[in-house]
Amino acid sequence: MSSTIANRYAQALFQLALEKQAVAEVNVDLEELVKVIETTPELVSLLATPKFSIERKKQIVSEVFATANPMVVNTLELLIDKKRVNEIGNLAKSFKTLAAEAQGSAEATVYSTRALTDSEKDEISSSFGKLVGKEKLTITNIIEPSILGGVRVQIGNYIFDNTVASKLDNLKRTLVG
């Protein structure tokens, strides 16, 4: 779940990236930053610890992320200043959502019993994208055998459940009363 604080930082970074026409580049750098943090949680611990001075933490960030977009590095340094390093993941998620909305797309999670083919993903993207007013959906496919068949599509707060399991559950409620 994204926090209000992360949303504010993401909004500010998004506006700056939009002005500099670097939304895609910043988005990629933030995704890489999240991967680095997920694979090395010690980095966040190091940046959050009071043992090192803020200047030393900023120096570490500028060395580790030397090839990243300066806007991302500056945002990370700002988070260090404000002692909000733990918001990096939420900030990246919020930024990704803002970037997708600006491009007329949205994130979608599709639950199915097997991996979807590219053509099936495209078909789901065009069909369900129209339902929520988006041109394109970026689909994450999660394999969930318990649904028995069909698909469940989650786009933001919308859930479209066309699974065999939900149909059986509805039938059971109807028959039992």
Task: Offer a few descriptive terms.
177 residues; alpha+beta; Peroxidase, domain 1; four-stranded mixed sheet; 8 helices; 4 strands; 60% helix; elongated
Textual characterization of the structure:
The structure is a single chain. This protein is of the alpha+beta class and 177 residues long. The protein folds into 2 domains: 4-100, N-terminal domain of the delta subunit of the F1F0-ATP synthase (Peroxidase, domain 1, Orthogonal Bundle); 104-176, no CATH class. The chain is built from 8 helices and 4 strands. Strands 2-1-3-4 form a 4-stranded mixed β-sheet, with helices on both faces.
Could you state the CATH homologous superfamily of the largest domain?
N-terminal domain of the delta subunit of the F1F0-ATP synthase
What spatial order of strands do you see in the largest sheet? 2-1-3-4
CATH fold field value of the largest domain: Peroxidase, domain 1
> Which word captures the global form?
elongated
- Give a quick account of the main beta sheet: strands, pairing sense, barrel closure: 4 strands, mixed
User: What is the domain tally?
Assistant: 2
List segments where confidence is low: pLDDT < 50 over at least 5 consecutive residues.
none
Q: Structural class, judged by helices and strands?
A: alpha+beta
Report Rg. 20 Å
CATH architecture of the largest domain: Orthogonal Bundle
Give the beta-strand count: 4
Strand content: 15-25%
Q: Can you identify the CATH class of the largest domain?
A: Mainly Alpha
Distance between the termini: 36 Å
> What sequence of helices (H) and strands (E) makes up the elements?
HHHHHHEHEEEH
Number of alpha- plus pi-helical segments: 8
Mean pLDDT: 90
Helix content: 55-70%
